[in-house]
Structures are given as C-alpha cells and as structure tokens.
Amino acid sequence: MRQLQARLIKSLSFSRLPPPAPSSSSSTSILQRVASSQPKGVAKVVLKKGKTQLFKNGSPMVYSRAVDRIIGRPPPKTGDIVLVADGTETPIGWGLYNSVSMFCVRLMQLEEEATRDPSCALDMEKLLETRINAAIELRRGLGLPSATTNAYRLVNSEGDRLSGLIVDVFGDLAVVASSAAWVEKYKSQVEACISSIDEINHIHWRPSIEILKEEGMDASDLKELHPSTCPQRTKVLENGISYSISLEGQKTGFYADQRENRKFLSTISHGRKVLDICCYGGGFALNAAKGGATSITGVDTSLPALEIARENIALNYLDPEKISFLREDANEFMKGALSRNESWDIVIIDPPKLAPSRKVLQSASGMYRNLNSLAMQITRRGGLLMTCSCSGAMTQSGMFLRTLQGAASMAGRKITVLRQSGAACDHPIDPSYPEGAYLSNILLRIL
C-alpha cells in the first residue's frame, strides 16, 4: 500500500510540472536554420522596438530609422542577402541590403512564407523565378496578351513582391525599368526569366538613373552597363487601337495602366467636343476619336510625345481634321482658353506624378488643386471632367477627392462624382506601401 501511495504521489508531482521546452531544432526559425548553413554566414538587421509589426504586415521597405543594430562581421554590402529580425533577434523575414539608401533593406520574403515554402528561403535566384512565373500566370489569367491587346505590365514592383522591378511587355519586346540596386546586381537572372517567355524576342533595360543614384550607384557606370541594341520605336495594339511607342519616352514608353480608363472614355465620347490635357502620345484623344467625338484637342509640353501622337492619327486612319495636338504648358493653355471663353464637353487631365513621396504631399496638393480648378472652369456646365493622379502618396492618403472639392470651390463650380477607378487590373498594388505608384481616375460632372 505504501509503495502504491508513493507511486501516486510521484505521478501527481510529475503532472504538475510544466511541459518540456521545445528542442532547439524545433524552436529555431526556418530562416535562421538556412542562414546557419551558409558558408559565409548571413548578417542580421535588428529592428527597433515597436517597428516590427509594420513589416510583418507587409511593408517591403525597411527604412534606416527603423533599424536598431546590424549583427555580422564583416558588415553586409549593398546587394547582400540579410535577415531582418525583431528585438529578440528572431527573424521575421529576409531581404536585400543597401548600405547607402534610406531604405536599407527591401524585404523579399517573410518567415511565415518561408515556413510554408522553404524552397526560396535566402535564395534570390529561385525567388525571382518563382515571383516572375507567378506574375506571368496572373496576366495569363487576366487574358493578356490577347488578339486586341499586346501591351501590358508583367511585373509591377511591390505589387508583384519584387520591389524596384517593373517589366512592361510591348508585343515581342519587354522593357525593364530598374529602380533598385539589387535589380542591377541580378540583371542576368531577371533577363533569363523574361527571355523564357515564348513571345518575348527583345529586352530593353531602362535604369531609373536618378533613383539609382540615391541607391548609391554611379550614373556613368549605369549608362555603360546598358547599351541598347533594341529599336527605339515599336508598335503595339491596345483594345484594337494601334500605338507607336518610343523607348526613349516617359517611364517605359507607354502608360499601360490607363488601358481600361481609355476604353471607358471611348464609350462616352460620341458627338462630344473633347480636350486631353497632358496627352503624351494621345491615348485618351485617340479613344475619344474612335468613340465618335466631333473634335479632339490634345495638349502637352513634350515635342517628341506630340510627334508620336500625330503619327498615331495616321496609324489608326483617323480624320486629321477632327483631332489636333498642341505643344503648350497645361496651365497656360487653360488660362488662354478661359480668356477666350472656350469650353469642352469632356476634359481629361492626367498630369505627371506631382507627389512622389508623402514629404511633398502638401505642396503637391496645391498644384493638383490649381490644375483641376482651371480644368473645371473650361469644362462646360453639365459636362464631364476625368481627372487623374498617379501619385500613390496623394491617392492613398485620401486627399485627392478633398483636393478636388477645394478646386471646385476655387473655380466657383459644383461637382458630382460619377465614377472612381484605378489602374488596369494587370497593375496590382501593395497597399502596405503608400508611396508606390497607384493610379486614381475620378469622373466628375461639373455644374
């Protein structure tokens, strides 16, 4: 009996003990285990207290002020793979380091993603292949390319989880816009992935020089690295309309993100007088003409862009008597139109990115307000104004509509919102990064 009681007491005492701690192999993160197997080791960027959740939630840009310390000797160099860790030095993800940029790490994969699929953990070549293949699959699922459209965005930076890399496809040509040092480092791997696409025969590499200088790269070296062997002009088809594109033009040469908005304009233009401000190559103007507008005027300051716009009139067999393109500053043109009491049934205004970051949001909102105030005054009462912003900082701040309300007050007009739309669906966005490019189009009725 005493022996039985002793065994019961021993059993009960064991049941009150805490469960055994997990072994080191089970508690170590997958990224830490992969890093420890690397022959040269992997540096660790440790975040300050309170900063971790922002990046766990998906923001891909780890800015320098969020970093507490860097562990690793020798310290990492630009382009190196690093772990990003919380204050306890537990990895939350990995990314690519930059010793110069205000964004010292571009996060590429979170710990939870690596746990689900460890095949890409700390392997940039494999990650590139996986992400670009996923981007291809997404566009195929959206019906791109098609018999009527062969111009589309294949990779949209943060939206496709490849921050700093944009790839636009124009027929059999791919234009790569590079705006991060890591993209330059992995140039051959990026090209190999794109070259694997059946319809692509040419790749044009277009570094964003000013941004890459901020990334610590030398502009003269970049120009030497990327001598172009592609033709400077190509032709594409979008919604059945032909466009000539200059690879030396703005951005990648063509604003594919406006495709669905251009098509919509063609459905409301019949019998109307249309003005396209900041028209670039004439995308909205051409769609208005195809939609049966009675007269179309395009205005831009770029002579090369206007030459292409005029070329596109002939390319689509449009009546040159009904469509004209003028070289003039947007503000000056609209002020002149006001002085002549000239107005249009439909006005489109699509200015360049006026707020490239949140730092200049206040000053940019003033520029948007002034431009739109003028545009509202030259839109006939009861007419339509399609106004655009490609500034992510403006649209995601929620300030764009308030700015338009301020513009209406300045113009002495009342406005009604008829339609709000974003970029074409092959331009996915990452909402956790508000400074990324994001298009907002608002159709207003002017009263």
TrEMBL record:
InterPro entries: PUA, PUA-like_sf, PUA_sf, RlmI-like_PUA, SAM-dep_methyl-trfase, SAM-dependent_MTases_sf. Keywords: Cytoplasm, Methyltransferase, RNA-binding, rRNA processing, S-adenosyl-L-methionine, Transferase. It comes from the Eukaryota. GO terms for cellular component: cytoplasm. SUPFAM superfamilies: PUA domain-like, S-adenosyl-L-methionine-dependent methyltransferases. SMART domains: PUA. GO terms for molecular function: methyltransferase activity; RNA binding. Residues 43-137 form the PUA domain. Pfam families: Methyltrans_SAM, PUA_3. It is found in: Cytoplasm. The keyword Manganese does not apply. One of its GO terms (biological process) is rRNA processing. The keyword Magnesium does not apply. Its main location: cytoplasm. Belongs to the methyltransferase superfamily. RlmI family. This is Ribosomal RNA large subunit methyltransferase I isoform X1. It comes from Theobroma cacao (Cacao). The lineage of its organism: Eukaryota, Viridiplantae, Streptophyta, Embryophyta, Tracheophyta.
